[in-house]
Specification:
alpha/beta, Urease, subunit C, domain 1, TIM Barrel, 2 domains, five-stranded parallel sheet
């Protein structure tokens, strides 16, 4: 891969600032500035918009499959889990190897503009897989499944996991108040009793948050993750998101797994916008939504020094989409899979429109012969793309394992 190149003549959204007809230079996998390269300059036009590649702050990659499972609304997550474990879909999913399910989840995220995912599961489960995946899966975190009596006992307990996070300056992550029973509704109280609320704490779901809970989260500067698709599917209710935002809490959007959430991060943000309007009779700003899938999750995950925005010295994780609106933020929030034009991680192209492959010599070796070892040509919703690895081989394997031509909408190849 070329150690130095630039992409020029397009709109660049950092996301704090918008530069028109701008350039962004990449050197050895990092952003070196906003100028054209003397080596290779890829010239585009104002029909394209560049953003930081997206961050999905909450997924369960091991739960990747289709269709959704459940017959809610539920009082808390536990009866849903019983439905999950007894479902034919769950049994079918388990006919596949764990790594293949992780790979499926990676491609689901990649083709929707995501290069970084937080996989909410114990390290001992995902450690064997994450270095083999085409995208980045966060390694540095501590966790509890949740803090109610129904906790799946992931990790070493709240006190040890939280102390470890503080010592290492990494996030402590937990589901919180994912239900309305008495035990679930004590979530924030329990964390406060354990002195486990701070800027290092990431709280997921919070559909049972009281006004007092929201005040407490704001007081300790904890981070919040909103998963409206999963919440509405399981509980027909989501968090008091306007109140949470009004308190200045750092909010990110996550997909949860396809077992309950939307198909991908692009569908999740559209659903979030729809839910917000239904709840409050007004629109949630597209600019605010873009922050929730770029800079906000990087702050919560303590990776904002290297990811989450387009700045000199940061890793060159880049998303380029087709412009759909005069407002570039709206272009991203309204984007469909076919609008994803190019995705780059640490300077390396992972996925994009087939025409971009020529800029990086993806399908040409030094002797001019076709070289498909690391990339594959696919079609997404009628648009020709290149992609790292081989999702076609993955789908063939899954279909062989389950015994029929399985269709998976979040990987429509």
């Amino acid at each position: 891969m070329k150690p130095e190149y630039s992409i020029s003549s397009l709109t660049v959204v950092t996301p704090d600032k918008i530069y028109d007809k701008a350039s962004l230079k990449v050197v050895n996998g990092k952003i070196s500035g906003f100028e054209a390269s003397d080596e290779v300059d890829i010239k585009l036009d104002d029909t394209y918009v560049m953003f930081p590649a997206l961050i999905n702050i909450h997924d369960h990659l091991f739960g990747t499959y289709y269709p959704k499972i459940g017959n809610g609304p539920y009082i808390c997550w536990l009866p849903w889990d019983y439905d999950l474990k007894s479902s034919p879909v769950y049994s079918e999913r388990n006919k596949n190897e764990p790594f293949d399910i992780y790979l499926l989840g990676s491609y689901k995220n990649l083709i929707s503009g995501v290069t970084t995912v937080q996989d909410h599961i114990p390290h001992k489960i995902n450690d064997p897989f994450i270095d083999k995946l085409p995208i980045r899966v966060i390694k540095d975190y501590t966790l509890s499944h949740e803090v109610s009596a129904y906790d799946l006992k992931w990790g070493d307990g709240v006190d040890i996991e939280y102390e470890r996070a503080i010592r290492k300056k990494i996030p402590y992550i937990t589901h919180i108040e994912e239900g309305f029973d008495v035990e679930s509704l004590r979530g924030i109280e329990i964390l406060e009793e354990h002195n486990a609320l701070s800027e290092y704490t990431i709280l997921i779901h919070g559909i049972g948050f009281s006004d007092e809970d929201i005040e407490t989260v704001a007081k300790y500067r904890a981070n919040f993750v909103w998963c409206p698709g999963s919440n509405m599917f399981m509980f027909n209710r989501t968090a008091k998101i306007k109140d949470i935002l009004d308190k200045g809490i750092n909010v990110s959007i996550g997909t949860d797994s396809p077992a309950t959430g939307e198909l991908n991060i692009l569908e999740e943000v559209k659903f979030a916008k729809k839910v917000y309007r239904n709840m409050y009779g007004e629109d949630l700003s597209d600019r605010v939504i873009v922050d929730m899938i770029t800079k906000n999750p990087s702050k919560a995950l303590k990776i904002d020094k290297i990811l989450g925005s387009l700045e000199e010295g940061k890793l060159a994780d880049i998303l380029i989409i087709k412009r759909k609106s005069d407002d570039p933020y709206s272009s991203l929030v309204s984007a469909e899979l076919q609008d994803i034009s190019l995705i780059i991680m640490e300077g390396k192209p992972l996925y994009g429109d087939l025409k971009f492959s020529e800029y990086f010599d993806i399908f040409n070796s030094d002797d001019g012969k076709n070289d498909d070892k690391n990339y594959e040509k696919i079609s997404i919703n009628g648009c020709d793309k290149f992609i790292v690895g081989s999702p076609k081989t993955l789908m063939k394997k899954i279909r062989k394992n389950v015994g029929y031509k399985k269709e998976i909408p979040f990987l429509p190849i």
